[in-house]
Amino acid sequence: MRASGIAAIPVLLAFAALALSACGQNNQTVRIDGSSTVFPISEAAAEEYSKITRARINVGFSGTGAGFEKFCRGAIHVSAASRPIKDSETAACAEKGIDDIVELQVAIDALTVVVHPDNSFVQCLTVDQLHDLFSGKATRWSDVDPAWPDDRPSLFYPGTDSGTFDYFVEAIIEDVDATAFHTADGTPSEDDNVLALGIRNEEDAIGYFGFANFSEAGRSLKAVAIDAGDGCIDPTRENALNGTYSPLSRPLFIYTRETFLAEHPENPVLRFLQFYLDNTGTLVQEVGYIAMPKEVFDEQFNKIAPFLSDG
Amino acid sequence: MAVLNPDPNASNFRESLRKRPLNRWNEMLIKAALTACAFVSLATTALIIIVLFGETISFFQDVSFSDFFLNSEWQPLQKPVSFGIWELVAGTLNVVFWSLIIAVPIGMATAIYLSEYASPRIRRTLKPILEALAGVPTVVYAFFALTFITQDLLQPGLGKGAVPIFNSFSASVMLAVMILPTIASLSEDAMSNVPRDLREAAYGLGSTRLEVSLRVVVPAALSGIIVSILLGIARVIGETMIVAIAAGSTPNLTLDPFASIQTMTGYMLQVGLGDAARGTVDYRSLFAVGTMLFLMTLVFNIAAQLIVGRYREEYE
Predict the structure, then answer these.
(1) Phi, psi of B282, deg, nearest 5
(2) A8 contact B CB<8A
């Protein structure tokens, strides 16, 4: 008698847990996932938004590619990306019945190449030199510039799920030599903190990630100026805005669906995105990226304006 | 309740026995339930094997066996794509090798101390503490390896140039700490089971305590010791967090302890957390590596059982 009584308790607990787990999901949850570069902005927006509403915002950073995949599966409401959506990804979404994608730019990033702060010889790299380092053509510093030491650089770069990786491959690897590939001889990671940790701790390290991670690191990392033919340009806000920091300055996006924007009556996605866009100016500066110029910002706002006036 | 719990001293005991209600259905139900529970683990294992092997077979429709087994580069996610498994296997064997080099001597020494040298009181206190060490979550070990071992111990000690931030040695040290309780505890159990007569006989012939430990007890307990080491190896092969966080994500065909490597489990974690869509080669590579891992662990577990069967000394 007693034994079967005791056995009933775990069974009841299991049922209770199952029943209660459904309570956590309310339809006030907005799910965002995707680029780890855009993540700090989304996270800051979510934090500020949760102070003034009861809506819950879940922000992930699985990588631009992973984010689009989840978006096309219908698992998330907003997909953050550090590169524009690819045609193949739009097609994949269309196959699943998602053909009303809305693209919103939220900031400008200056993709920064960083080295260890004690690195005395790398101040400026031409696009070709950067290409050689990251395509495997140069295996030693001296291959890039004979005046440099004979040591091997340690490469740290975002993983293949990352939009930053895709962008770098397009702008630095393939634009210089369409047959070249990004090297696999280094430490990839989707987590920019892991990259920063690695570069901070190895004197021969070189890597790249979004501007916000660099500005957060302060003096523990050193940025490299990039020479695209017009002289060495440092990655700064001004240079990203005025377009001289090329080819590594790029827009950051969030993608959602018209269906989500048009939901009635409770419209968590639209309300959150309205808040997001309204506050990009301050949030983006706080996080360390570059705010869009006014004309670009107005363009984005106009994309969600029609939904705001309905209901 | 006199009928269901017959009291042997009652005057109507035999009556009450005869009057016990027939619980045949209850008995059969309980038997069925217990059998079902026992089969749950069997069924789960069978399902895991079916899924693993199914996806692996699909994988080998896209990737040839020669590509998998004869190639030496593992680069499934970045172009140019290549699927040579040995870099990952080498990464796993790298950490197995270095963690064993650390854990086996220390584990054996601990076991010999506990079984031959320690007083019963020390043994009673130390053994539970040792076994508690086995309960530390591996993610704690992982960050300990990355922050303390690599950054506070190895890099200041050997220089930042010689020790990359992600290296297999830090991971191996923590893996050794992880399997130390297994090896020490199981070896000590095996050694304690060696009957005293053997030891007394050796002492009687004038052996020192060390000679008794190494020449009498250890050989007698050898099967248990080897099993403990093989179980330790199986644990290290399957360990994911420590190697994923501390050892790196660069597939590398090397036994160098101070190289960034990627183990099979580290790769599986990387792809599992990423965006491999179901049905693609990337996704299936996860299962191919998983099958390889499964087979390696199976081999070690079977070896452990065979050795127990063959070499175990049965004492009366």
Answers:
(1) -55, -50
(2) no
Q: Does the structure show a pLDDT above 60 at B3?
A: no
**Interface probe, candidates B275, B280, B282, B283, chain A, greatest A C-beta count within 10 A:** B275
Say if the Cβ atoms of A184 and B161 lie within 8 Å: no
Sequence ranges of the domains in chain A: 27-108+251-309, 112-247
Cβ of A187 and B260 within 8 Å? Answer: yes
CA distance B155 to chain A (A): 9
User: Does some domain include residue B8?
Assistant: no
- Per-residue pLDDT, B18: 67
The pLDDT tens digits of the residues spanning B277-291 come to 777 888 899 999 999
Q: Contact B273/A198, CB-based, under 8 Å? A: no
Architecture of domain A27-108+251-309: 3-Layer(aba) Sandwich (3.40)
| Mean pLDDT calculated for residue range B163-186 | 93
User: What pLDDT does B1 receive?
Assistant: 47
Contacts of B260 in chain A (CB under 8 A): 187
For B229-262, write each residue's pLDDT tens digit.
999 999 999 999 999 999 989 999 999 999 999 9
Q: Name the H helices within B19-73.
A: 24-62, 65-70
Phi-psi region of A277 (alpha: psi -120 to 50; beta: other; left: phi over 0): alpha
What ipTM was estimated for this complex?
A: 0.77
- Interface with B, mutate which of A187, A191, A199, A221 (most B CBs under 10 A): A187
Q: Which residues pair with B90 in a beta bridge?
A: none
Chain A segment 241-260 residues within 8 A of B by beta carbon are none
**3-class state of residue A257 by DSSP:** strand
Q: Round to whole Å and give the CA distance between A89 and A68.
A: 7
Element (H, E) at A281: helix A280-287
Which of A66, A69, A203 is facing B160, going by the closest CB pair?
A203
| Strand duo A187-189 + A29-34: pairing | unpaired
> What residue numbers bound the domain in which B35 lies?
13-62
How far does A55 lie from chain B, in Å, by closest CA? 27
Question: What are the pLDDT digits (tens) for A90-142?
Answer: 999 999 998 899 999 999 888 999 999 999 899 999 999 999 999 989 999 99
Chain A residues whose CB is inside 8 A of the B150 CB are 201
- Under-50 pLDDT residues of chain A: 311
* Residues B271 and B164 reside in one and the same domain: yes
At residue A9, the pLDDT reads: 78
CA distances A267 to A4, A28, A273, A310, Å, are 49, 8, 10, 11
Q: Which residue has the higher pLDDT, B155 or B142?
A: B142
- pTM, 2 dp: 0.80
Query: In this structure, what CATH number is given to the domain that contains residue B212?
Result: 1.10.3720.10
- Identify whether the C-beta of residue B73 lies closer than 8 Å to the C-beta of residue B85: no
Return the CATH number of the domain spanning residue range A112-247: 3.40.190.10
Kindly state the tokens that stand for A251: 């827009």
Helices A64-72 and A87-95 meet at what angle, rounded to 10?
Answer: 20
- Give the tokens for residue A232: 């060495």
Note whether A163 contacts B: Cβ–Cβ < 8 A: no
